[in-house]
């Protein structure tokens, strides 16, 4: 009970200091027909923060992330991502916003029959005008950067390997290197490790954490494993049935706190 | 730690349910259709039912098959042969089935297997069939009351003002033909060139274009200098369709008459039956056939070419070429094609073994 | 103890997870409808298999007259074959280039203006419904006699099939890479090239090669435009009952098709869609600098074969355009030719012919799909791993495809006499060859990853097939079966050869007797039927995919 009050309290204080925030959600609601997916949520994320969204599938985490990159539009409330409202801006503006926002998917979103480097280079398409096919069609400076980014995720030796011959963890690293090509200020990650084994999961998340610290980009990452969230994030937001039931700094939260919140919510 | 069930999975369940009931409905209607089809199958004869395999040696067949192939200038093939079939049924007393077939090879092979009793196709097809099947021509078409009027001509047509005035002038020119197995569209003209000392394969540039109308239109378009086609295309069919007008073409060469479309009958039929078929086909003409009631629904006014005697009469469409009548024919009438083939020795003429 | 709030969704939430597919209206209802039509057709066509056995002797006698094959002058036969090949390649290439944007706009994922999507879909359906014979007739009057008219006729007719199959491939692709690249701010065109075209390339290649195979056989239509080619020679040989020469020509065609099959097989390996044991993992060699790609066997193969294809296409274009048409008369001609088609004439005969053709096409499809499925399963590695059998079956299918319908029709006519039964059998054989090809291709393209997972659990081959292969295969099975009936409908011209009626005979008659207004009526009726089949197919795909 106290924790939920704490959550509303934080949202309220966040409201006073929105300028410069990476993401601001105000009373954002979302429904598909009769189905309420998000129920008037508030959130303010400051630059450089690593936020973990936890909760079961269907709780509204993916919808929340998709609202932030303009794939969905809210049915109520307003939002601002990197100073732009993705729900109301024009198509070119949205494309510019997406260029500044990285997105990491559970299914990686890689083209399996192309090489790791070709997939990484796709991250730079937003800064090019013409379609490209094959490594040789990308300008040399971009190729240098792609190589550097593959090095940062530890895959420089696999750069010419077919992506569908890489392990799951390696594929997700390629996907992360692809978002690095965007030099994004904000990275949204939707269950990035849900299809990976525990060792690969922790190593992929730690890589993301390290890169975020080095480059200073904000990360909002949905996870269903609480202990992983507590291990890598600065801040944990727990979602249930479209509402936030906990929003606290990771250092002040334990697994028991989260379990307590859900147990309470179930009774109430 | 388990999460409470969410609303969405519940919604999915109801969707599955409704899908299930819709599926049952579809299954039900399909099953009904299936059952109906089976019942239909059980009783009632198919519209395509074939007669039982007849024993032609012991007596009259239970059914005759009359196959018709579209010739260059045939129209409404099935309808125009219906009165003739009616005449055959009346005289022989045997039900007769028409099969309109687009390939001469199909009909000839059915004749080889003795599965087509009566057929009509082009003169060249008869020449081919006579080599492999036991068939004899019994009649040929006659376009007007004049005997022998069923013969067709092959024309060499050119655009007005062309420097080609005779068969000798085609040397070195682009020449449009229909196809290598067409009497009017290739063979007779090739023989004439041979006689004039022109090799139809090497001394000209031959273009086989597949059909008579394309040969004429593309000659006019300048794709070739001269086109060899069947006469009715130039004099009546193309002008009637508005594709060419009178004066658009000039005739540079005319062939000798080529015998008209034959009706052939299988030799495996009894002599008596063959005589009855000849009687049915040659005993009527288009006008008497109408009077006999063979074409109450499909008929026309006698055309001008039949002369004053028939002006204003109602007539049947008597065969695909709209003939006045059929006159008796025999194999010797078609020897001309064999002679052409001997003179030419082209691929299409080389008979089997 | 790791704390998990809930089991994560399966790796591919958008695809069906391996397991039995939930039976849907489409997977049950459509096959049932086919069976119902077939039962009706068995009665309608008076099909009695015993009659076929009784006529066996007649078939044997006819086959005797076909052997030994003769070639005539082998030099001229080879030059005819090469002529045909150039025209078919040029036509198929043009069709491919036109089809990519059309298919992209026609696919369900197209996000642009709706009008463009509708136009693209309309173009695909109409060009698919119009036989190449009609295109040839129109084009010869527009561009004149010669290979250009032939190449264009083939191109326009192929756009329908290639465009439709490309669109299906685009729709079946898993959406996550497309979403990922959209999320980096790429334009639609960039995204299409990067994630759709790149993933579809293996499928597109096999579709194009298959269409080339069809176009080589369809080159008989080139005779109508004075372009010559081996098809005209074959038609002439059959028309003059010179079956030994016909067989010689068929053998040349079969050799061309076998060569093409080999190219298709190699292309499939070089471009493999999913990683297999034989596919190269390293796509590039070490370059001089780490950021530059170098050359290795895989890259040389890919770039080399791409360049080779381009060169072959360019040469074929040069051949076709060697004698350019007089463009001055193009417009006037187009208007004049098309005016002959108006106003279209409809008649009860047309409606009856269409009905007959639809019944025969659907029932021939049922037989073709059943036999085709058996052949496809036996010639891929999922159930039976006996290489000689699979090679023999593939060879047999090439032979079946190389032998023209009319030859089968003649054999059955000798045995059964003229009529729908003979036509039906010929049509069923060509449906079997079509369906076997489609099914083999999509079984080969099944994603092996879930199968390996199933095998790892100790499942038997049959279990892997039922639980792993079949669910992945169902969408293309239903789609390709409907597509086969759609092709059978146009192939029903073969029925006219043996007096089985149907719309094929009426269409050929109307063209041969220059009744183009009737031709137009038939074409419109055909378009309506194809659109209806298409609607069912789209509905089915939505249910199944």
Report on this model:
The complex is a heterotrimer of chains A (268), B (353) and C (545). With 268 residues, chain A is an alpha/beta fold. Chain A is built from nine helices and nine strands. Chain B folds into two domains: 64-150 and 260-347, Periplasmic binding protein-like II (D-Maltodextrin-Binding Protein, domain 2, 3-Layer(aba) Sandwich), CATH 3.40.190.10; 154-256, D-Maltodextrin-Binding Protein, domain 2 (3-Layer(aba) Sandwich), CATH 3.40.190. In chain B, helix 2 (77-92) links the parallel strand 1 (64-68) and strand 2. Mean pLDDT of chain B is 82; it is low at 1-21 and 52-58. Chain C is mainly alpha-helical and 545 residues long. Chain C has two domains: 23-54 and 355-545, MetI-like fold (Orthogonal Bundle); 69-278 and 296-339, MetI-like (MetI-like fold, Orthogonal Bundle), CATH 1.10.3720. Chain C has a two-stranded antiparallel ribbon with strand order 1-2. In chain C, helix 14 (348-379) crosses helix 17. The longest helix of chain C is centred in the first third of the chain and has 33 residues, at 74-106. Chain C starts with 24 loop residues before the first helix and ends with a helix. Chains A and C meet through helix 3, strand 5, helix 5 and helix 6 of A and helix 8 and helix 9 of C.
